[in-house]
Amino acid sequence: MGMAVHLQRRVDFPMVDLAGIMYYPQYWDMAHRFFEESWKDICGTEYHVILKEWKLGFPAVFNEASFEAPLKYGDTIDCTIWISAVGRTSCTWEYRFENQDGVTAWRATVTTVCVDMQTIEPEPLPDGLKADLQACVE
Question: What is the value of pTM for the model shown?
Answer without folding.
Answer: 0.94
